[in-house]
């Protein structure tokens, strides 16, 4: 079955028409949607069936690949990542990122916002003939993530392995999660006060959005728990809502960008990001996933990369609060980028 998946991947790549391959967390199947033309299809999450791909800066209509043509394959067997993967020092990126963190902390102390997520991109010379080997490796190394490969002639090629659910809706149940804090994978991670307070900020902000849309007693957060993602672990809180009517498009626009990729409060943090990050995030930290009129499975676009024949661009970021230490924040982004970096460099 692995051979069939590889042959189908190669066929779609050779045709260069819009397609997506994806596999849900802890799922043994790989799903595949494709188009027979090169049209750029867009619409609302509420009234279409397909795989959506939304940017960090939300647009009126979202691009998607319809599920009219679809099939499934067995997911490749899982592989275990090494406990530690090295990422070489990047002196060129280090100084401006540290300076950006210091400036953000100043703004936090002045009361402009409580948290802001600062990101950076890492450009690598492409070493693969196409992105297919990277996608297959992600399927094996990230069995607990939402793994995808998206291609559209007008939008380019993106792939990733996201640990963060954005929105899941089925019947009268809505689920989302608050994810914050990052440490190397461990059975007993030692969380700092900064990381726990950052997690609490994210939970508080998401709850404030949802309780404006639903009665407070229907919005239920879980206890905080450790969520493993590849060679990392995060603090996570699941949040569940029960409601007779759920407007998925409205809720997704109210929640996006979440505090995990924007900040708290969202408006001021995002304004600061757009003014100071110095590059266009594009689809990094947007959201993606399949949806129908019955089910919605959307994820935040983290641990992702954009592939071209010349350059492979990785994206990585971290949440900055009043208690952030710039050097520690830099190291966190290094850890987040390490697996994808080593995949792209052919070290895994």
Write the layout of secondary structure elements.
Layout: H1 2-15, E1 19-23, E2 29-34, E3 42-43, E4 50-54, E5 62-66, E6 70-74, H2 91-109, E7 115-125, H3 132-141, E8 146-152, E9 156-162, E10 165-170, E11 173-184, H4 193-213, E12 219-221, E13 225-229, E14 232-242, H5 248-255, E15 263-264, H6 266-276, E16 287-291, E17 295-300, E18 304-307, E19 311-320, H7 326-344
Antiparallel strand pairs: 1-2, 1-8, 2-6, 3-5, 4-5, 4-16, 7-15, 7-19, 8-9, 9-18, 10-11, 10-17, 11-14, 12-14, 13-14, 16-17, 18-19
Helix pairs in contact: 2-7
Q: What report would you give on this structure?
A:
The chain is of the alpha+beta class. Helix content is 29%, strand content 34%. The chain is built from seven helices and 19 strands. The strands form two sheets. Strands 3, 4, 5, 10, 11, 12, 13, 14, 16 and 17 form a ten-stranded antiparallel sheet that branches. Strands 6-2-1-8-9-18-19-7-15 form a nine-stranded antiparallel sheet, sandwiched between helices. A hairpin with a 3-residue loop joins strand 16 (287-291) and strand 17. Helix 2 (91-109) crosses helix 7 (326-344). The mean pLDDT is 94.
